[in-house]
Write a structure and sequence with these properties.
Blueprint lengths: L6 H8 L5 H7 L3 H12 L2 E2 H8 L3 H13 L4 E5 L2 E5 L7 H11 L8 H25 L4 H9 L3 H7 L7 E5 L5 H6 L5 E6 L2 H10 L6 E5 L14 E5 L8 H11 L8 E7 L6 H6 L8 H9 L5 E6 L11 E7 L1
Parallel strand pairs: 4-5, 4-7, 5-6, 7-8
Antiparallel strand pairs: 1-3, 2-3, 8-10, 9-10
Helix pairs in contact: 3-5, 4-5, 4-7
């Protein structure tokens, strides 16, 4: 396949190397040499450069424009500011040779040694300003991040912690919510549900996913071989099961006890008193206490367990939830 050059790269290739006298002319002013020396070390704004070299910003801006026009500097916009940087490797060979020769004598230019000391002070002030900025905005930071980046990047990034060669069983998959989240990060998801209608809904939802497999089956007899998956999820399903212990025992059976896998994740309701859920929603259990779920897992094949309550979602109207993690 032929590679297509970016327009900037085509322009760069088409540019004729500048005559040596033009390059030397750019560096004929000691102030411009001082600017390049500090901008080779750090990317700085016009104001920061002015603070380092102790010159008016108007003078600094004029010198920076000359150096940018000459191809010595790269300019980057950062909000309302412009940042400048000189990268030696990005210079054309002739300019690079001239700069290497000039740089060896920078210390002989009046003020250059002080520039290095003041650069450290400017960078320290930048760090202090950053700390003060984030301290001032601490209470608003979540809103700022959400307005800039949305809300999904944190769970998506954290899902990348899952080993990408894992096979995960999504037990009682329903319409495929968990499989949709897990699919992009693991080798394969096996979505299991006793309802053909639910599996059809999951297929419709995840039609684009080529690493999701669908199986009909009950959770009391999971249609998987012993030690065939690295992890298993069971999300808001256990309260529908007459004998939750059988499901937990089946989960431990299908989990691998090697490769760092053997991980079960159960999310369900904390114990509650909404008895109408049995008649209206077909629930067999009115939730579980953390102690009950922990004992259930330890009695049915899990060696390590951890149960914690999940933070309440202000928009949720149902009982509180817990997440239980178990390893075989």
């Amino acid at each position: 396949m032929c590679a297509t050059l970016h327009p900037d790269e085509r322009m760069k290739q088409a540019t004729t190397p500048r005559p040596i006298h033009d390059l030397l002319g750019d560096l004929s002013d000691p102030s411009r040499v001082r600017l390049l020396a500090i901008l080779e070390q750090e990317e700085l704004s016009v104001g920061e450069v002015a603070s380092v070299v102790q010159m008016p910003q108007s003078t600094v801006s004029r010198h920076l424009k000359t150096l940018q026009d000459g191809g010595w500097l790269r300019r980057r916009s950062a909000g309302p500011s412009a940042l400048y940087r000189m990268t030696v490797d990005e210079l054309d060979p002739a300019a690079r040779g001239v700069w290497v020769a000039v740089r060896a004598r920078v210390e002989s230019i009046e003020g250059a040694a002080e520039d290095r000391r003041r650069l450290g002070g400017v960078l320290a002030e930048r760090r202090a300003d950053s700390v003060a900025y984030f301290g001032k905005l601490a209470g608003e930071w979540d809103e700022i991040r959400q307005s800039l980046f949305g809300t999904s990047f944190t769970p998506d990034a954290l899902l990348s912690l899952i080993p990408d060669d894992w096979v995960v069983a999504d037990l009682g998959c329903g319409t495929g919510n968990a499989a949709e989240h897990l699919g992009p990060y693991v080798e394969r998801v096996i979505a299991i549900d006793q309802s053909e209608e639910m599996l059809q809904a999951a297929k419709k939802r995840l039609g684009h996913a080529c690493n999701v497999e669908y199986r009909v089956g009950t959770l009391e007899a999971i249609p998987l071989a012993d030690e065939s998956v690295d992890a298993a999820t069971c999300l808001l399903v256990l309260h529908h099961i007459e004998d939750p212990g059988r499901v937990v025992r089946e989960m431990s059976r299908v989990l691998r006890s090697f490769r760092g896998g053997g991980l079960a994740v159960i999310v369900d309701m904390l114990e509650h008193g909404r008895s109408e859920y049995k008649a209206d929603l077909g629930h067999r259990h009115l939730g579980f206490t953390p102690a009950t779920i922990e004992k259930l897992m330890l009695d049915n094949g899990f060696k390590k367990t951890r149960v914690r309550e999940l933070p309440a979602d202000p928009g949720g109207k149902g009982p509180g939830l817990f997440v239980a993690i178990g390893r075989v």
